[in-house]
Amino acid sequence: MLVTTFAGLTPGVFYGIIGILLTLMSQLTRTVNFSQMAVGMFGGYVGMTMIQKLKVDMWLAAFVGLIIAAALSGIIGWIIATWLPNAQIATRSAVTVAALLLIVSVSSVLFGANHSNFKPLLQTNVAEIPVAGVKLFVSQNLVVLLLFALVIIIGSSLLLKRTMFGVRLRAISDRQAAAELIGVNVKVLNVGVWVVSGALISIAISFMPNTISNDYISFSLLVIAGSAAALVGSFKNLWLALLGGVIIGVLQGFVASLPAFAAYKEWVTFILILVFLLWNQRKEVWDVAR
């Protein structure tokens, strides 16, 4: 039980990164990007195909996947910025759902029914932690993903709060009309945020743990776990989004260690979503009760 629960840390940090990127996209582009994992998945599958058929180096394949994911994400962002610049969040987010379904459909045609098994760029352990007579292994993927999450949180916070460029990025979401009046190219910045988001999720996928199912449908739907993580931070707090992802991963690891409930570990995500939705609505419910 202890080993399985601890092993949930790595996918938990991965969920946290998804939640962090969803939170940033929500704040900067007024969009809940449900296609985020799909674009990363598509780039990853192209890279994996290059490894299998062209025998290219794994790192080169990962770089090609990054470029493809960034470009694909940029195209989705360009479509939204061009035709839906003033639309509501729900409308803009609905476009990403359509993009998710389209990418999954195209993937099923291009890559067929035989799903490739992704192999992370790093596959060794860096440390052993003895606890209660049990050895807990700290993988390189866990260390890299955690450092990557911290870099995104700290880097984005410094960029948005301490630089003039960060002020412009916040303006394209909060004060779009005013930003345009003072000469800020809102469309270019919007598309740029989408491109960077696609590149970042592609990097995270390169170090994704083997314990996560990675066929293209399950892979794309990991955005649900990321959404649950972002919901812990109310799509506002990056640190809480990371914490939410870790909580989901650890709870899934704990449930997986229980033979009677192992088949239901994916329910953890939906239960967490339900709990936080109810908690966020508690004030309205209590007001009605009074």
Indicate the topology.
Layout: H1 2-7, H2 9-29, H3 36-54, H4 58-83, H5 89-111, E1 125-131, E2 134-139, H6 140-162, H7 164-174, H8 176-181, H9 186-206, H10 216-220, H11 222-232, H12 238-256, H13 267-280, H14 282-289
Antiparallel strand pairs: 1-2
If you had to describe this structure to a student in words, what would you say it looks like?
It is a single chain. This protein is 73% helix and 4% strand. It has a two-stranded antiparallel ribbon. Strand 1 and strand 2 (134-139) form a beta hairpin. It has one domain (2-289): ABC transporter involved in vitamin B12 uptake, BtuC. With 290 residues, the protein is mostly helical. It starts with a helix and ends with a helix. The protein has 14 helices and two strands; from the N terminus they run H-H-H-H-H-E-E-H-H-H-H-H-H-H-H-H. The mean pLDDT is 85.
The sequence of SSEs as H and E is HHHHHEEHHHHHHHHH
What general form does the structure show?
globular
- What is the CA–CA distance across the termini? 44 Å
Number of strands: 2
Q: What is the number of helical segments per DSSP (H or I, 4+ residues)?
A: 14
- Binned, the helix content reads over 70%
Widest β-sheet, arrangement of strands? 1-2
- CA-based gyration radius: 20 Å
CATH top level is Mainly Alpha
Secondary structure category: mainly alpha
Beta content comes to: under 5%
Largest sheet, described in full? 2 strands, antiparallel
Low-confidence sequence ranges: none
The residue-averaged pLDDT reads 85
Which architecture name does CATH use? Orthogonal Bundle
